[in-house]
Design brief:
Distance between the termini: 86 Å
Largest sheet: 5 strands, antiparallel
Radius of gyration: 32 Å
Helix content: under 10%
Strand content: 35-45%
């Protein structure tokens, strides 16, 4: 079994590295198309995976799409197993994803809780049997590709919304829009091994939160709208869109290495300076980014320019290194509502190698007026503190290959480039709503590790040294060096089968450094080996009813399993005749009556179940099929079938004659 899985993993790794090796040439400063989605397929913003591919969750939460970031492969759709989906009634239920050091993609799904009450911003959700979830996806895994961390299992009422953030130790931070009855918004932290959920900060939304939290609204703010981890990898920056002395929001930070998690207000937004409230949260990406020593943020209703009675927005910053951070405020740019656009539809900000990039989405899907860019369909820009205006890098329009109206979110690639999504394209010469992924080449010639990932993000330690394989690809470098829990000189790209490394109990860190001198780049991946084996899969019963039947009849298989990750019914030849649905793996007995009776003979069926730790258990049974007896009604003279009772009168007559 393990050899088969490893062969599968090698094949996947070979494919991924082949794609990376065939990267198409890109021109610095050019925005290029990556892939086009089918019509009416809507996805959340992408993330750059550690295997050199872009990944995005469909807005319905039912599938995940991927494609090579360099545009060299077709779009791939992978359906998400039913156990990890939610019946979403709108497109606000999928929170923006993050990627941890093992290459796992983590995103949030907001849904209703077990009492049937809906979370704020997700009032149209229809499934009422669970709290919200965090989903963990390992793209190249042969087994256990999906994991779920739910509010129910961890005992917390969570409803993930907006952006998420991840620190250098792989702890994940997210905003939970909890039930109105609790009166709170909460920032949670999920531990790096996904086993614990803890409260980082609570904010009062209404009086139900209690007088202590309500009293803090005027100083700390409330309704957290964006999260961002600072350049040090540990400081969590928080923007709120309400509260503070002027009820326009606040900027704060938390030192996540401090056990007390002290909450420090850095800036209270004012109508005089920013001119309006901080952008509220969206399911796209944070409107909060650190570039150099300055933290940038946007005020949707800010600035001084008013069009049709509405302010057009402002880009602002504070200096995190200043003795008085609040006083270091700077209104960086005051949007006019002309070709520079306005922020009513959001503003995506991202910092890459100390440079601030942003996307203004525009408001004209098919080019019939509007603002933001030469075509009214949005633009990509870069900005440095003190610049008079943003530097326009690309005007978007729906009639070209890149598409128009960009989503206000950007993804940073390990290759040093930026990636984004447009919402409108022009297939076949007619207007249509095909979404597209695009790439902005920053022109960096510095060494980059464009892919680096382990085959196994986590293993189960049973006293023996475990092993996994590492895969990588570097650009602008001829050699690399391994350090941490492995060592030695390494080539700029691993072979297709990867490099085998030992994984002792605990967390192992494997660092790869490529290039030389000050331009060298390093990345670290982590593999966790737990000393606690997961529960073993078990089959409580596997029976058939009836066990003996006639041809043409049907039979029913019944089973009861526990702690199984997957189960299937096999025939005598080993082929799968039925795969248990995810909801049939939680225990109890389920009946499947969709088996047609074969011809006469004895048949064997086997229930095979696999546990999360890899153990496989089986249970066989036999079904006997007999040929059905058909009574004949054919023959001349209208005669029917013969019965011995028809001789009874003759027997009685013979008996009387004998007595006479």
């Amino acid at each position: 079994m393990m050899k088969t899985l490893k062969k599968f993993q090698y094949a996947v790794a070979a494919f991924l590295l082949t794609v990376l090796a065939a990267q198409a040439a890109v021109i610095a400063g050019v925005v290029s198309p990556v892939v086009t989605f089918p019509a009416s397929t809507f996805v959340r913003p992408p993330v750059y995976g550690h295997d050199g591919r872009l990944y995005a969750v469909q807005s319905t939460g039912t599938a995940i799409f991927s494609a090579a970031a360099d545009g060299s492969s077709a779009l791939v759709k992978e359906d998400i197993p039913a156990a990890y989906t939610v019946a979403l009634g709108n497109n606000n239920g999928v929170a923006a994803p993050v990627v941890n050091s093992s290459g796992q993609i983590i995103y949030g799904v907001g849904q209703t809780n077990s009492t049937g009450q809906a979370c704020p911003r997700t009032v149209l959700l229809t499934k009422v049997t669970h709290y919200g979830k965090l989903l963990i996806y390992t793209p190249w895994a042969a087994t256990d590709k999906w994991q779920a961390v739910s509010g129910e299992t961890l005992g917390q009422d969570i409803c993930p919304v907006s952006s998420m953030a991840i620190d250098k130790d792989d702890n994940v931070y997210f905003i939970s829009a909890t039930l109105a009855a609790t009166g709170k918004h909460i920032i949670y932290r999920l531990s790096a091994d996904h086993s614990a959920l803890s409260v980082v900060k609570e904010f009062a939304v209404n009086a139900n939160a209690g007088p202590d939290l309500v009293a803090k609204q005027a100083t700390e703010g409330y309704t957290p709208s964006a999260l961002s981890i600072g350049a040090d990898g540990t400081t969590l920056y928080i923007a709120t869109s309400a509260g503070g002395a002027n009820n326009l929001g606040t900027l704060s930070r938390i030192d996540t290495t401090n056990a007390g998690l002290p909450y420090e207000v850095l800036r209270t937004v004012t109508s005089t300076d920013e001119g309006g409230a901080i952008l509220p949260y969206t399911t796209y990406a944070p409107t909060l980014a650190q570039a150099g020593s300055r933290l940038y943020y946007a005020a949707r209703t800010g600035g001084t320019h008013t069009v049709s009675g509405q302010k057009q927005g402002s880009l602002n910053s504070i200096d995190l290194s200043a003795a008085d951070v609040n006083a270091s405020f700077r209104l960086e740019y005051d949007f006019t509502g002309g070709t520079d656009g306005y922020l009513g539809f959001g503003l995506g900000l991202y910092s890459l190698q100390g440079t601030l990039y942003g996307v203004v989405p525009g408001n004209s899907p098919i080019g019939v007026g509007g603002t933001a860019g030469a075509h009214g369909q949005g633009y990509l820009f870069t900005f440095a503190s003190g610049d008079a205006t943003p530097t326009n890098l690309r005007d978007f329009i729906h009639t070209d290959a890149v598409g128009g109206v960009p989503v206000p979110a950007l993804a940073k690639g390990l290759d040093g480039n930026l990636y984004g999504t447009t919402q409108y394209g022009q297939p076949g010469g007619t207007d249509g709503a095909e979404m597209k992924w695009w790439r902005y080449d920053t022109g960096s010639t510095a060494p980059a590790i464009t892919a680096f990932y382990p085959e196994d993000a986590s293993l189960f330690y049973d006293g023996e040294v475990l092993k996994t394989r590492l895969h990588w690809k570097a650009s602008n470098a001829t050699a690399c060096t391994a350090s941490g829990d492995w060592s030695g000189a390494q080539p700029a790209a691993s072979a297709a089968e990867g490099v085998e490394v030992a994984v002792p109990e605990g967390t192992s860190e494997y660092t790869l450094s490529c290039g030389e001198g000050e331009s060298a780049v390093s990345r670290t991946v982590r593999v966790r080996a737990s000393g606690e084996l997961p529960p073993l899969a078990a089959i409580g019963s596997f029976t058939v009813s009836p066990a003996t039947l006639k041809t043409g009849e049907r039979f029913t298989l019944n089973w009861a399993t526990s702690d199984a990750a997957s189960c299937k019914v096999l025939n005598a030849g080993g082929s799968t005749v039925y795969t248990l649905l995810p909801e049939e793996l939680a225990g109890g007995t389920r009946t499947q009556a969709d088996f047609s009776s074969p011809t006469a003979g004895t048949y064997t069926y086997t229930l095979s179940c696999t546990g999360r730790g890899g153990n496989v258990v089986t249970a066989p049974l036999s079904v006997t099929v007999e040929t059905a007896v058909v009574n004949s009604t054919e023959g001349g003279g209208g005669g029917g079938s013969f019965s011995p009772f028809m001789l009874l009168p003759f027997a009685l007559l013979a008996l009387r004659c004998r007595k006479a």
